[in-house]
């Protein structure tokens, strides 16, 4: 398949993007157009659910602020993914120590694209 993609001209390649996004959404692999973030969430939940030593997770509703997944025991997980090793800032860490948005933070680092 990679060889077939390489044969496409720039315009043909760009035209694949909307179809790819639609198919990923139809399969419930991503939920928005934020591919890196959504794939991180998808794989985090998949890895947790396939490992009997880890809590079972389900995706939080898209309207849930600062929480991406919930465990079957009610724990809240924020999931962040990046393809760089730079430290970033994200809004879901509260400035007020009394406000807690999540119990766990999962960070996925994409070292290699498949």
In short:
With 114 residues, this protein is α+β, with helices and mostly antiparallel strands.
Low-confidence stretches: none
User: Can you count the helices?
Assistant: 3
> What amount of the residues lies in strands?
15-25%
Q: How does the helix and strand content classify structurally?
A: alpha+beta
Distance between the termini: 12 Å
Shape: elongated
Radius of gyration: 17 Å
Major sheet summary line: 4 strands, mixed
Mean pLDDT: 87
Helix content: 25-40%
* Total beta-strand segments: 4
Spatially, the strands of the biggest sheet line up as 1-2-3-4
Explain the overall architecture.
The model has no long low-confidence stretch (mean pLDDT 87). With 114 residues, this protein is an alpha+beta fold. A hairpin with a 4-residue loop joins strand 2 (69-71) and strand 3 (76-82). The protein has a four-stranded mixed beta sheet, covered by helices on one side. Helix content is 33%, strand content 17%.
